[in-house]
Amino acid sequence: MYKNNKKSIKGFLDSEFENSEEYFSRKTVNGLLRSLLEPIAANNAKSLIFTRFKNTSSIEGIIKRLEYCSNVEMYSFLDFDVVSKDDLVELEFVIITSHRYNAVLIWDYSESQNKDETRLFIRVNSKDINEVYETLKDRLRADFDEKFYSYRPERRENALLNDAVYNVLKILNENIKENDFNYKEQEVIADKLQTRDKIDEINANIRSCAHEIKNQLSVLDIYTKILEKQLGQDKNLGLIKKSISLIRLQLDDLRANDNLNFEQKDLREVVKSSISVFEHILPERNNKIKFIDNVKGRALVLIDEERFFAVLNNIVKNADESTSNDEIEIKIEADEKFAKIFVKNHGEKIADDIKTKLFTEGFSTKKDGWGLGLSICKKYLAAQLGSISLVKSDDDETEFLVTIPLLTDGIN
Fold this sequence. Notes:
Elements: H1 9-18, E1 24-25, H2 26-43, E2 47-52, H3 60-67, E3 72-76, E4 92-98, E5 102-108, E6 117-124, H4 128-136, H5 145-148, H6 159-193, H7 196-231, H8 235-255, E7 262-266, H9 267-278, E8 288-293, E9 300-304, H10 305-321, E10 327-334, E11 338-345, H11 352-355, H12 373-382, E12 387-393, E13 398-405
Parallel strand pairs: 2-3, 8-10
Antiparallel strand pairs: 1-6, 2-4, 4-5, 5-6, 7-9, 10-11, 11-13, 12-13
């Protein structure tokens, strides 16, 4: 606790901010603020809120609603600061404590080159909230200890919860930045080339093609059912049905990002299912699969199985197409927080100048490639709080790693 040594908030956050290279946009921070304050305002939930906003124009609506809530006590530190000496001259923050949850957000736009971005300190239901409150106590004109500590949300070192919140925030931040960038770029290109009508025409053609392909997939479904009646439960028919399902998924993604269908799955069974698809295809290049299972018990994960299946299939397909007469190794491991899937082959190494472009949309080393495979894998995994990376690629072997959070406390 910082109760007795009166450390500054800057000092408290040095270790967090100095090691953080992640910058969040104002839109991300404001969106997070609204998501934390909205439940309190909507329910007039009994709470105590301390704020320091230098500019409230973008969140003025939610602030006014909170001011009219009879059960909400809200205090601003802006008037309490000794500006010439205070360590809060540039910092902004929100501290929320209530029966529902407690949270602290602290940010500082002054240190970033882009004044629309900031590093962010965030904790939800954490004992760090108490420590931040203690550093601010001597600036308050009243004693709020009894009220502050009367609320009883869980306050402990909850690393998994805060890691999850931070990862979700990073994904949202990336999407906001990407959408802003794409919107601006599209406007510039459209103005220069006067291609707005052309873009609409292309989008219409995409929708039309997707519709026609779906019609043909429906025909394939009918013939698959006919063959099932004739042949019974055939393994190859099951693989065909799975491929049809994945094609539909890709077509849906051409139109819009559908909501993810999360399910609890044993990662081992998902990987085995993916391997079964390629056991009949790899012999064409005289390749085979070696499966190494280093997980004890069940590795339970919360995933969209279709999209996760598509990721694994894409990686194994790339490994198969880049080698021959080889043994492709798929290995699964798990630690306390994450399940890990390693996919390794022994083909030609990936050049250094290509490694940095692998996950860039539109980049491909194939003459007829669209450069979408690995970028889609990255997008699918990010939406499930997972990641994909190239571990190494040298003259001996090339290895990719897929990481996904384990469910609850790890391996069940």
